[in-house]
Design goal:
The chain is mainly β and 122 residues long. The protein has 1 helix and 7 strands.
Length: 122
């Protein structure tokens, strides 16, 4: 059995419907629950300084694309390349941690997910 996810992607003036089949592993997909988000912990920033923003972007989703950008009030010590650390769970006993080592280069995206991986490399 497969679930079908439909997304509408804008292409100039028209929209195209795209269908993607996702294998149903039988395991329930629990939504993301952010535990903490920290920008610049390796540079001495307060742990959890982007938790609220990350929660607003990602909580209750199956997959989230979180934009990597320094918070407006963040001031890095000279020459420190800040990291971004996300911690989240996907239900009882399933905890995840992801880190972008050089988050100081804004413009990237950190993808958080609770969708079980299948196939090679999972």
């Amino acid at each position: 059995m497969h679930r079908v996810i439909r997304a509408f992607l804008p292409m100039a003036a028209l929209s195209v419907a795209v269908s993607v089949a996702v294998a149903d592993t039988g395991a329930p997909v629990h939504p993301i629950r952010i535990e903490s988000g920290t920008y610049g912990a390796n540079c001495g920033a307060r742990v959890g300084n982007v938790t609220r923003d990350m929660t607003e972007h990602c909580n209750a989703l199956d997959t989230c694309r979180y934009p990597v950008a320094s918070p407006a009030d963040y001031r890095a010590p000279h020459a420190c390349q800040a990291n971004l650390v996300a911690k989240w769970n996907c239900g009882a006993g399933e905890f995840h941690r992801a880190e972008v080592s050089v988050a100081g280069k804004s413009g990237g995206t950190l993808v958080l997910t609770c969708v079980p991986s299948t196939g090679p490399g999972r």
